[in-house]
Amino acid sequence: MSLDIPLQDTYLPTFLPDEKRHVTLTPEQASEFYQEQEGTPLFPLLVTYMSSGRLVALCLMRRDAISGWKALMGPANTIEARQYYPFSLRARFGDPNHQHKNALHGSDSAESAVREIHFFFPEMMVEPLLTGTALAEYLATSVNPTLMQGLAQLCKVKPVDPVVMVGRLAANE
User: Where do the coiled-coil regions begin and end (predicted)?
Assistant: First the structure.
């Protein structure tokens, strides 16, 4: 994505930026990243554009991050974005004269996200999200005991800043 988009202050308050990296892709790396587009008329334009300068790669976290990021980006077609979603990132920062210069990329599925995270952050471990019984078990064995201990301690001590105290207790567990 372009380095001049003010994402941190304006657009990301509902996301937790997990990783951030400034990179310059070679044409080979851009080809590998956009391999799903290979054979389309857009592919050579994407490769050329994505290897033409520095990018910011972000790994963003939150519940429903893919759909949330897509909503912020707006449609891939910048003309459509400007017409129907004027406050979207692509409407504001995309080039309506060159559809491959729509300013941003976002994963289209959880599987794509894992591949793309490993592409830019190869050292990062991507663990599957817990759901159902596994989530309930994790909460019951790992989160709830620490939370209960912290809340009991809060009732006894009544600190000036309870959030800081709970944070310290959680960090020590």
Answer: none
